[in-house]
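Q: How would the structure tokens look for this protein?
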Amino acid sequence: MNSAKSERLLVVDDEVEILTPLCDLLSEWGYEVTGFTKGKDAQKALKEQEFDLLLTDLMMPEIDGIKLLKEALKIDPHLVSIVITGKGTIQTAVEAMKVGAFDYIVKPLDWKLLKLILSRAIEVRRLRETEEKYRSIVEDYQTEFICRFLPDGTLTFVNKAYCRYFDKRCEDLIGHSFMPLIPDEDHEKLEKHIASLNLENPVATIEHRVFIPSGEIRWQKWTNRAIFDHHDNIIEFQSVGCDITERKRTEDKLKAASNEWRITFDSANDQIMLLNSEMEIIKANLAAVKFLGRPFNKILGKDCCKLLYGKDMIPAKCPIEKMKRTKKHEETELYLSERGIWIRISVDPVLDDKGNLTGSVHISRDVTAYKKMGESLKWRLEFEKIIANISSRFVEDSDVDKSIYAALRDMGTLNGASRAYLFLFNEDGTFMDNTHEWCAEGVTPQIDNLQNLSTEMFPWWMHKLRNGEVIHITEVSKLPEEATSEKETLESQDIKSLLVIPLISADKLAGFIGFDDVKETVEWGDDDLALLRTSSGLIGNVLKRKRAEDELKSSHEQLRNLSTHLQTVREEEGKHIAREIHDELGQALTALKMDIFWLINKLPNDLNLLLEKTKSMSKLIDATIQTVQRILTELRPGLLDDLGLAAAIEWQAEEFQKRTGIKCEVTLDPDEIIMDQDRSTAIFRIFQETLTNVARHANATKVMVNLREKAGKLMLKVKDNGRGITERQISDPKSFGLIGIRERVNLFKGEFKISGIRDKETTVTVSIPLGGETR
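A: Here is the predicted structure in token form.
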């Protein structure tokens, strides 16, 4: 038999003359085979390697087949085991099946039967792995009862399902022990189970009986988890359970069956059918009978496909038809539209010695729940992805409107809505605007028609929003009379159904967010509401942040305007004071100087003391005139107004060099730079502040100044060879000189850079446009 299978088989038999040909045959069938003559060697291999099937003899020295089987199941609970037994040890084989063996085969071996058993065993292995994979998810979604109780059994919490099951109110259960609900015979077992929970084993499952109000005894399955305090003492138990009465009853029926398929066939949850070469049913397990909905005598000899697909046409993917052509294992998933369910079907051929198809083994399973679970998980992953995208956009993208539109698009696309939108109220909540809207392809936008709407037009709607209620309208045409205005507005937009929730921002009702459908009536679910709530919270927060940023920006702009105004006032005041000093004090000092000069010339030479005093007064007047000229220059350098910026820069550099002894080199390009008075003043004052910083802090011996015009911008670069400014000094909020420079540059939408290299240099670079508006 050539097969594409690669399942790993572990074969154990103490008789080499049986083991060797058996391993060779299994290898020819396509299996990966490992053989041992001793149970302890096989046990070691199980611990070191993974196997799909265990085929073992029962009667062996040292470790017999049953002991090996027990140890194997401890190592790998999913391992499927088949035991080989002699004719006289059938009872031992039955015992092995009770321990967990899948099936047994009697020596001498029937190769056809062995092949069939191996095929079924492999399928069971797959089913076990699949069942294990999805068990935790399915159990979470199918759990019905939840409760919490103290170590003495006193209930502290029960959910509604628990109350409905026992037909009691919540308050009638909480504060009382649940033990009276359980038959006395099960008390000891339950108490031992609870006592077994500890830090090493905090979770365990138990099945026990309960009384229900009708007097009937039913079965429940509970998963109990111990809850510990910070001293590792058990303070409470949390339990999740479900009714398993029907399962128990089914198990009881299966246990009552007394034929060779009692364990391997009828106990299977999957629908298993044996078919002849015509694909007619010759045997079916209980699950298959139940699935087909007819007693066994009504399906015996019937065409499997006709019973399975009903009125539906046999699909092209039907594995039975494909298996008939390939004579190999075929497997697929199909949707039965008449039943409204998904099933997974696997079919294995039964061939004679010549390779002719004599029948097949048909195994199917209802996987609708798994499919729905997969869709739910897929939706949840998409949901989390969308929320993550929305969050990252609001953090990273400065364009809030663009981010909100993207959020609406993602929400609407995920839920299949026609439109998703955001409405915002004005400050007093009297008017609202549709500020953002996303529309699916082919849906007419309404945003332009929904501007400056009075909220008084929609009293029913606004009442619900102000109360924090969700507005879930599954059918607009059935709105109550008090919502007449809302109904007319919604119908004018062809809206059939909608879901809307309030938008809260800064602890205030700021508007609402939602989506609708214009094609059909829709009942939105909890997942849709969760998506809407999460998005609403994110948008509310970003609107709050945007409002704060706008207020901060406005405040900053006001401060900047105030700073600009103060600088302008200061310059104008300086200019005014300079003019007054020049016109009044300057002229007075000049006149006084002339009078003193006249007096010196007129005094007789013999009045030496008076003459010396007069000359001293003349010198004092000269010094005062120089001081006045210096003050006038500091208040408003005349060169800046008379000869322009370039000359003022050169003069200031010369004065700086004279005053400090620091060499100052100036490069101008071009020699004359024409610009408005405000910009000239700003550049000159920046240059003055830079030189002041050099004199005070740099400990430099040389300053290089470069003033040039390039590409419509004026660039000033001042570089010294001093100690070098640090990053800490640059960012120091008390560096008022640098702050003043930065504000002067920002006023003209320019650029300001300052950098330093320790013990080497500091460079200040300023660039402002020669023309254009100020900020």
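Residues 639-769 form a domain with the Heat Shock Protein 90 fold (CATH 3.30.565.10).

Residues 135-142 have pLDDT under 50 and may be disordered.

Upvote if useful.
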